[in-house]
Amino acid sequence: MLGRLSDELANASSAPEKAAILHAYSSLDVFFSSHPDIQALAAKLNEKQTAVLLQLIVIGQAERIFDGFNAHEKEFFVLLDQLEVVDRFYREIGGIVGYQAKILELLQKSEEGECQELKFHAPHFLNISEDSADVRQAIEWGVDSVEEMAEIYPLGGAADRLHLVEEATGVELPAARLPFLGKTLLELLIRDLEAREYLFYQKTGRQMVTPIAIMTSQEKRNHTHVMEICEENHFFGRPADSFRFFTQPLVPAVDESGNWCLKGPLAPLLKPGGHGAIWKLAKDEGVFDWLKGLGRKKALIRQINNPIAGLDYGLLAFTGIGCKKNMVFGFASCPRLLKAVEGVNVLVERNAKLVLTNIEYCDFAKYGIQDKPLNPEEPYSRFSSNTNILFADLEAVSAAVEECPFPGLLVNLKKSSLQGEGGKKQEVKMARLESTMQNIADVFVEEKGKELKTERTFVTYNVRHKTISTAKKAYVSGRALRETPEHCFYDLLKANRELLERCQVALPKERTVGEYLEQGPELLFLYHPALGPLYSIIQRKIQGGHFHLGASVLFELADLYAKNLEVNGCLEIYAEKPIGHYSSKGDLHFSKEAGSCILENVTIENTGVDWKSSSPYWKMNLKTRESVKIVLKGKSKFIARNLHLQGSHTFIIEDGQTIKIL
C-alpha cells in the first residue's frame, strides 16, 4: 500500500494535492474519531503541516507519537514543522510516506538477503603509494589544479560513539569539537588545505582562496558549534564569504519492526540521515551554483574524522589526476584491514556495463561479498578501503542528483541507547534510512570495453597510514583500538616517524600500541602542514640529527632549516605568522612576512615531558617539566649554530628582529 501511495505523493505538485490523495484513506477517520483534540488542532494547521499530519496517520505512527498527548499546541506545531523538512527533502520518493515505505522495504530485504546477477571485481588502481615519475607528475598537476578546486566537508553526523561531552555541563558535543592535537578537527582540515594553497602560491606567486562548503545538522547543536568554531577562529584567516553552510535534515529512527523510536509524546528520535544527503542538499540550496559562479569545476570531499589524509602528497596526486584527466568522480583508496567497519571500492559488472562504486560493510552479506584476505596470513582484505576521500566534477554530480537524489540507501540496525521519558535509558536495536555520499558514483555507468576498467571514474591506491585513520569512537580500556583518537594519534606519529627516517634523523626504538598507551610515545613529532606538506620538501628542511627516547618536537612554522639537530627532551618552535601576514580584516595574505628559524649542530637537553601525566596524548595537554621554546613574532628570525642548550629556555623574537647565537 505505502509503495503505491508514495508514488502518488511523489507526483503531487502541492501540499493540498497531497492532502487530497491522503483523504482517501479510511484510517484518517478512525484516528480523528478517537483523537478529537488533535482533530481540533488540525483545523489550525497550514497546508504543509496538514500534509505531514495526514501522512503520520496513514503510515500508522501517529497513534504512537501522540500517545499521552495533552494538547500542547506549541509542541504540536513545532513537531510538524520539523517533520515538514523531512517531507520536503524526500519529496522525490513521496515524502514521509516514501521514507517509511523505503525503510520497510529495506528492513525486509536485510532479512531475506538479495541475489542479483552482478560480478564484483577489484578495480583498476592508479598506484600512488611509491615515488615514481608518474606520481611526481600527478603531484604537479595537483598543485596546478588548486585554482579550479573547491572543498566540501560533511560535518553533520551524530558521532554518538565518541561520547564527547562538555566537561562543565555534561552536554553532548559533535565531532567538530573534538580537541585533536589541541585543535578542532575542522581547523586541521583547513590547515591541510592552506598548505596546498601555499604550495600553489610558492609556485605561481598567486594566492588562491579555495571556497569551502560545509554540511552541518542540528544534531547536538552541530550547526551552532561549527559556526562558533569558525567565528572564534575568525574563519581561519579566510574571508567569511568563502564559506557556505547548509544543513541536512534529521530523520526518524526506527526499531526492527519499522516503528518510529520515541523519547516521549511528540518526541520521535531524529538523527542525521547519512552523508549522502550532501549532493541533493548542495543542489537544492544553491551550493553548486555558488561554486560555479566562483569558477570552480571540481571538488575534494573530506570527512572531518580522518585528520591524517593530508599527509605528504596523497591529496595532491589524487586531485591532480582527477583534474588533469577531467574525471567525473574518484575514490582515494588504500589497503583495508579485515573485518574493518569500512566500505570497499569495487568494480561492478552487469549486462556488459561497468560502474566503479562502493559497497558498505553492512551490505556485504546482501551482495554475497566475503571479507577474505588478499593473501593468506595477511591482515588486509582482497578489496581495498573506501576512505570517503572523494573527487567530484561539480557539473556531473549536480546532474547525477536528478537521476539519483538519494544514493546508496540502506538501513543498518545497531544497538543504541535510547533515553525515554524521565531520563530512563534502554538499549534498543534501531536504524534510520541512510544515504551514502560515495554511491552517487552508481550513476556513472559505462559500457564494458576491452579492458576491465572505467574511463570517466577512477580510484587511487596509497599506503594506509598516510590515507586513513579515523577518530570515530571513544577508547575504552580492554576494547578494540581501531577508530579511536588514541589509535589515530598513534598512526599519525608513526607516519611522522617515517618522515624523520627519510630525513636521516636517528630515532629511538619504535613502541607498540600497547607500550604507547602505557608509557607514552617513544617520540612525539608534530609540524605545521605548510612545512611541506610534501615529505620531499620537508626532507630539505630537516637533515640528520638525533631525537632521543621520550623527546617532544613541535615545529609550528613553514620556514625552517634544521641540520644535525639533537633533541633529548622538549623543543617547541612557534611562528605566530607561519606563512604570511593578516590584513586589518583578519584575512591571511601569504608573504615573506613570516617567522623563520635556522638550527645547525644544535643540541637540546632537558627533562622534557612528563608522559605519565600527559594522557590522553592526542589532546596535546602535555605536562612539561622543562622545555626550550622559540616564539617568532611577525617577520622574525632565530639562528643558532654549534649550540648546546640545557634546561628550560624561552626565546621570544619580536617582529622585525633577528637573534643569532653562533
If you had to describe this structure to a student in words, what would you say it looks like?
- With 662 residues, the protein is of the alpha/beta class.
- It has 3 domains: 2-112, no CATH class; 119-466, Alpha-Beta Complex (Spore Coat Polysaccharide Biosynthesis Protein SpsA, Chain A); 496-661.
- The chain contains 19 helices and 33 strands.
- Strands 2-21-14-17-13-3-6-7 form an 8-stranded mixed sheet, with helices on both faces.
- Strand 6, helix 11 (222-232) and strand 7 (243-248) form a beta-alpha-beta unit.
- Helix 1 packs antiparallel against helix 8, helix 5 crosses helix 7 (73-89) and helix 7 (73-89) packs across helix 8 (95-112).
- The longest helix has 20 residues, at 185-204.
- The protein starts with a helix and ends with a strand.
- The model has no long low-confidence stretch (mean pLDDT 94).
Strand order of the largest sheet: 2-21-14-17-13-3-6-7
Return the domain count.
3
Radius of gyration: 27 Å
Give the amount of beta strand, in percent. 25-35%
The CATH architecture of the largest domain comes to Alpha-Beta Complex
Helix tally equals 19
What is the CATH third-level topology name of the largest domain?
A: Spore Coat Polysaccharide Biosynthesis Protein SpsA, Chain A
Q: Quick check: average pLDDT?
A: 94
Separation, N- and C-terminal Cα atoms = 85 Å
Total number of beta strands: 33
- What structural class do the secondary elements suggest? alpha/beta
Q: At the first level of CATH, what is the class of the largest domain? A: Alpha Beta
Low-confidence stretches: none
| Most strands sheet | 8 strands, mixed
CATH homologous superfamily descriptor of the largest domain: Spore Coat Polysaccharide Biosynthesis Protein SpsA, Chain A
* Principal-axes shape call: globular
